[in-house]
Amino acid sequence: MADGKGGALALATRALPHDDEGTLPSPRPEDEVGTTAGGLRTPYLLFIGDCTEPGYAKTAFGLRDWAGEKCLGEYALAGATVSTGLARLTPAQARERGARSMVIGIANSGGRIAPEWIPALEEALAAELDLISGMHAKLSDLPGLRAAAEKYGQRLVDVRTPPPDLPVATGRKRGGKRILTVGTDCALGKKYTALAIAQALESRGVRSDFRATGQTGILIAGAGIALDSVVADFAAGAAELLSPDNAADHWDVIEGQGSLYHPAYAGVSMALLHGSQPDAFVICHDPLRTHVLGHPDFPLPDIEELAELTIRLGRRTNPAIRCAGVSLNTSALGSEEALSLLTGETARLGMPVADPMRGGDLFDQLVESCLAE
Question: What range defines the domain where residue 106 resides?
């Protein structure tokens, strides 16, 4: 998406992140002012590592665009070609400017923490910064990091740790309304689209909550459940827990995950679809992408194909599910080219097509379509 929009959002308040012991340690008294509802100490230094693929730096970009007031700068290693455009700072420099945590801004395939990153992570701990990670790999399982955290009195926080005692899904219809973003692939705008829609609903005075289902969304919102870290039998139940019964005029805007067509992550997408029981869904797509990111042997599905499949599968738990429109990631296009594409696709598909980060009348039409009964 084109660069960001911020603003206050109505946030989910349950299922807060945990550390390796299962509960997040209390912040030190002097740091309470800079602490999120989930117990994360801010401001952040964003760790870019040696990233060369922008799609794998989505955590860093998401925090820059949607929680920019919490981000002081970035820390990159030699060889990195990706940048958020924030000030390049060492951990010590960031601490001097007021940073309290370094967030791993990478979300690579498999959620791996590279051995080459370890000295930089230890450097952050030595500079008296907490380490926050949304990776599958646990910080406390890495050689030396636990000892360094204890030595310097800092915390290792894994936001991808799901809450305990998640229920098995019931499939029971819940009160309230729900919007889910779904995608033709990973890392193409599902989170940004959900955040933009949530912001638009708030500006219209619509009762709503943004529900985070991934590590970046949790860091932005301060709460949520990382669906891809939940044991498969409980993933749909976690989605039900994340968007509970609510008033008839209340809308949950649920961040999508993966793709029903993804060769590795379709299971997460299916569980989220069944558990969230969306009344409306928005398809997210990158018009310049032809194949699944990291899986060049798998072409992306057509928008129409994904719409049909989502409706067919989603009817299992919500027979009234409908496609409200399409969100296109036009960040690589100029303004005129993007507008031409969006208006052309609106006419071709017969439904609203917009880039939420560009806003405008087309996005307003998409939001209104989401709210239509």
Answer: 18-158
Residue 313: Cβ-neighbour burial (10 angstroms; 0-12, 13-18, 19+): middle
Of the candidates 158, 190, 206, which is a domain's last residue? 158
Predicted structure pTM score = 0.84
Q: Pick from 39, 46, 53: which is nearest to 82 by CA?
A: 53
pLDDT in tens, 258-285: 999 999 999 999 999 999 999 999 999 9
Residue 131, beta-bridge partner list: 102, 156
Instruction: Judge if 191 and 104 occupy the same domain.
Output: no
pLDDT tens-place string over residues 198-231: 999 999 999 999 999 999 999 998 889 999 999 9
Q: Which residues contact 147 (CB under 8 A, 6 or more apart)?
A: none
Q: Which CATH number fits the domain that encloses residue 100?
A: 3.40.50.720
Which phi and psi (to 5°) does residue 224 adopt? 145, -175
Look up residue 308 and give its amino acid: E
How far, CA to CA in Å, does 80 sit from each of 49, 76, 83, 124, 294?
Answer: 7, 6, 8, 18, 18
Written as one string, the DSSP assignment of 177-192 is EEEEEEESSSSSSHHH
The structural domain count of the chain equals: 2
Residue 232 in contact with residue 267, Cβ under 8 Å? yes
Query: Are both 307 and 365 inside the same structural domain?
Result: yes
**Residue 147 in contact with residue 213, Cβ under 8 Å?**
no
